[in-house]
TrEMBL record, chains A, B:
It comes from Nocardiopsis dassonvillei (strain ATCC 23218 / DSM 43111 / CIP 107115 / JCM 7437 / KCTC 9190 / NBRC 14626 / NCTC 10488 / NRRL B-5397 / IMRU 509) (Actinomadura dassonvillei). This is Redox-sensing transcriptional repressor Rex. GO terms for molecular function: DNA binding; DNA-binding transcription factor activity. HAMAP family: Rex. Pfam families: CoA_binding, Put_DNA-bind_N.
Length: 231, 231
DNA sequence: TAGATTGTTAATCGATTAACAATC
DNA sequence: TAGATTGTTAATCGATTAACAATC
């Protein structure tokens, strides 16, 4: 499809691996905070909630950053994963829709110990515009394109009501934002090359309900049984 | 592992399918609101953002609810998927941690047009306790076990700070809650049989950053290129 | 050298997809 | 009957996992 420019080492980290790298990174940062210098795949996997074979396979896609017989140097691995994820640079984030959720995200300080900067808050409600949220002035959504340009926004977070989400997404994309995190309960239509990730509370609850029902009609009392097994 | 009780039709809906059923359900409800009576796999798939082969395959795991040459009756399929997901009953949900995010969730009304009921809000901060949020009195976290029992809570939502999350999870599980939705940035340790789902803003942003970086160093200017391709 | 642990292989499993026979 | 569309088959693809040779 696109021409492949010459690159060091063949890329192509599996999506499933990419999705776990942030989990490993957080576990490593926790170890680092405790002053741990070195960790085995077994221990890191356990901290990340995966099995060690999967962890080693995942890390092998980044390179050979461990030492046989020893393990992985925590600080070095933190750096390598951060670099791979693109966290050694700073990404400007704009949040559109400053309701309860938008405010919660704006105030959520620690984005995995840096890599992101909330650069702008946008809302369609004139009463909201001008208010200060998390030390930022809320700007009117009409200024989206201008803000994206001036703040070099590359990630757009959509926390608008469902009806407004597609319109905002299209404007983000046309303004040059190719990464979107969508909290609105709609399927966004975007052109190829734009990356949309979706976070949806109802969907998560419904998936939980499915399994809960299974437990409930599968055996007598699922929840209590699980409780008893608690170690 | 567990004894299999006699059941109609062999169950075992793939996890990937379960995760998509809520998406189909929402698309169907939108169609229903517009008064659409019947829909083809092609159209429903398009509304849900998947391809039609996948949709048909997914639905085939529930049964044969379509009519060849015609499509699916919207209302009937809404009912079948709702039933499969366990939404024909009401699930009581407790939210632990009434910060910005907890409040946002408590105030988030439409949980996919019913199936869930926010039954309790819990917080460890005495200043928070007794306040009214979304028409519910915030109760002290010490009452967790009592509240789970009296309200028959089966789903626990954790929006506490990271340090408190594991403790709250353990208490939920011991109280009989076997379904947990975790917004805290930690890996929860729970016994087998307990279902934990995780929603994590930083992880989503980091995955977006990975792809954004790819675009950025893959070709000249990824975002603008994507913008130009917009139809 | 002996013990520990990585990085990789290969087998297995599950998910996706195209194609089409069945059937309305 | 002709046209449309489902439900299923089978091929393909990607992810997981156990096992172990390589090597610190």
């Amino acid at each position: 499809m696109t021409s492949r420019p010459p690159r060091p080492r063949e890329r192509g980290i599996p999506e499933a691996t990419v999705a776990r790298l942030p989990v490993y990174l957080r576990a490593l940062q926790t170890l680092q905070d405790r002053g741990t210098l070195t960790v085995s795949s077994e221990d890191l996997a356990s901290a990340a909630g995966v099995n060690s074979a999967k962890l080693r396979k995942d890390l092998s896609h980044l390179g050979s950053y461990g030492t046989r017989g020893v393990g992985y140097e925590v600080e070095y691995l933190v750096y390598q994963i951060s670099r791979e994820l693109g966290l050694t640079q700073d990404w400007a984030v704009a949040i559109a829709g400053i309701g309860n959720l938008g405010r919660a995200l704006a105030n959520y300080g620690g984005f995995g110990t840096r890599g992101f900067r909330i650069a702008a808050l946008l809302d369609a409600d004139p009463a909201m515009v001008g208010q200060s949220v998390a030390s930022l002035d809320v700007r009117h959504i009409d200024n989206l394109e201008e803000v994206v340009r001036s703040e070099r926004v590359s990630i757009g977070v959509i926390t608008t009501p469902a009806v407004s989400a597609q319109g905002v997404a299209t404007r983000f994309v046309e303004a040059g934002v190719a990464s979107i995190l969508n909290f609105a309960p709609v399927v966004l239509n975007v052109p190829d090359g734009v990356d949309v990730r979706k976070v949806d509370l109802s969907i998560e609850l419904q998936i939980l309900a499915f399994h809960a029902q299974r437990r409930a009609d599968g055996d007598g009392r699922g929840a209590e049984r699980a409780g008893l097994e608690l170690t």
